[in-house]
Structure formats: structure tokens, C-alpha cells
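User: Need the bound-state model for magnesium ion:
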Amino acid sequence: MTTRTPSTTRPRPEVDAALGLLGAGRADWERAPAGQPAVRLRDAGLRFGQRELWGGLSLDVAPGEFLAVLGPNGSGKTSLLKVLLGLQALSAGTVSVCGRTPRRGSNTVGYVPQQKSFDPDLPLRGRDLVRLGLDGHRWGAAWPSRAARGRVADVINAVGATAYADAPVGLLSGGEQQRLRIAQALLGDPAVLLCDEPLLSLDLRHQQAVSALIDARRRLAGTAVVFVTHEVNPVLPLVDRVLYLVGGRWAVGTPQEVMTTERLSDLYGTDVDVLRVRGRIVVVGHPDSPHAEPGEHHHHHHPGDRDPGHHEFPGAGGSC
Ligand SMILES: Nc1ncnc2c1ncn2[C@@H]1O[C@H](COP(=O)(O)OP(=O)(O)OP(=O)(O)O)[C@@H](O)[C@H]1O
Ligand SMILES: [Mg+2]
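Assistant: Bound-state model below.
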């Protein structure tokens, strides 16, 4: 009962899909007083033993804001997401999500973890995978099964995955699996969406579809997005600000402010050159990244494929 649709024949389903999420943000608007940042860090620090991953980090992420988190392997990007999920305590400072201390299992936060492929033999349909997003939430059990089924169908439709939602997940392409993961993360109608390298291993078309979907969600539902990535270019038109973590140090600001030869050389403590080529940012001389020339590897990105560099984001929706 393979119901996979060759995705080349589906013209930009992410746009229709995203519109389907318009009504999804209702509960978010009531979760915290208006004007509350989606994420607030104050003098936040995280250390394991003697090693400080980052410290003195103060940052507000507004509802609807798209924050890209960049930095080399081991700089503490995933650990930051775990702090926001309530899975990892800070060593110093404070953190709040929609005005509250993050706690495990909260449906305020949606999470797309660092990608792993499913076993081809896994006897789980895409629809079942998405449905798992209801478990562990406080209100999950309270949902009658018909309402739960409807909500699952809605988010599957919203990510454009209806055509293959009943196929075994292990047989789906990386991009199709990733859409289902995003559906799962959106199921709890989150005010904050945490994505850990969600574009890795996706081809350009799927990168664009997944990015467009996440972008639409934050625009239409006011969901703040914290998006960990090794490569800023595929999301550059969407990014409001960048948080760059390197060896215990950090910088935050717009891509124009942070992605400069001066700032990155200072952060890395060595000479790094930041070049701008046809709307793309190329960092040369990254001392400790596995991708010596970001953009040359694994992303299949071509200059000119995206509308480069400008992106209007008219005020955050205030959705916490
Ligand atoms: N619970 C823990 N106890 C001890 N060390 C940890 C723990 N969690 C993470 N670390 C260490 O902290 C460092 C940062 O890990 P983290 O996963 O946050 O990095 P990252 O920036 O996401 O890296 P990557 O780009 O490779 O995904 C790593 O060296 C990791 O081994
Ligand atoms: Mg990581």
C-alpha cells in the first residue's frame, strides 16, 4: 500500500500546507502576558566539568523571530536546545520560555532533533510517528481519539505529507521523513520551535520546502524559531539574527553584524575571512569546522537559487 507520490509532481505544497497552519496558533496567544519574549536567557552559562561551553549569554528571542545558531562541532548548540527543552540545567544564570522555566514534556516547545534515518524495516507509518508527538504531553491523554486523529491529519496536511503518511517511515526519503518530524514537532502547537540541523542531508528542493514551511509557521502563528545549522546560506533570507558560538565565546546580531571578517576572527581567535559572493556568505579559514569551506559540501546549494539576502519581517506576532 505504497501511497508515495513522486514529489517532483507536487508543485510547492509547502505554501498550501503552511496556510493550513494559520489557525493553529490559538492557544499560543494565551500562554503568557503580551510582550513576553519567547525565549529569555540572562547571564546564562553551561559547563561540563572544567569546560565552559558558553557563559554570560544574555539574549531575548521574540515571538515570530528566526534565530540561527551557528558554531563548530562541540560548541554547545544542541546543549543550548536541551536547556530550552528543560532537559539540561544551566550552570549559571537564568532561562525562561514564554515567561516560565522550561520543563520536560511541555507543549510550549516543539523539537526537531538532529537527524537520524529510520530503519527501513521499522513497522511504523508516518501517521503513527506524528501521533507519537501527542504522547508525553500533559493534555495528550485528554484528547479523544477522534480529535487526536483530526489534529494529526491536519499537521500532516500542513507539511504536505498526506500522500505518504500511511507508508512505512523507513521507506521514505530523507526529506519526507523530515517533514513528518516537523509535523510531529508542530502537533503540540508550540510557541517555540527548536530545530537541530533540520536541513542536513536534504537536497536543495527539500531544503527549500522545509525552510519555507518553518518560515510560514513563524509568520502565520508567531512561533519563535531557534534553528541550529552549520550552513547559514540556505536560510539566510529567513534569518533575523544569528547566535554564533565558538569555544566558550559567542556573538549575537543580524547576519550583517556577526558574519564579518572582524567579528568571526575575533570569535575564533585567528584570522578568518568572510566573503560575500552573490548573496552568499562564505567563511574561509574556519579552523575547527569539519566543513573547511562551508557551502562546498553536503548542501547542493547553487548561487542564485534563492532570493538572496533580504527578508522583511514586520514585527513579531507576540504569540507567547
Ligand atoms: N551531559 C553531558 N555531559 C558531559 N559533556 C557533555 C554533555 N552533553 C554534551 N556534552 C559535551 O558538550 C559539548 C557540546 O556538545 P553539543 O552536542 O552541544 O555540541 P554541538 O555544538 O551541538 O556540536 P555538533 O555540531 O557536533 O552537533 C560536546 O563536547 C559534548 O561532548
Ligand atoms: Mg549538535
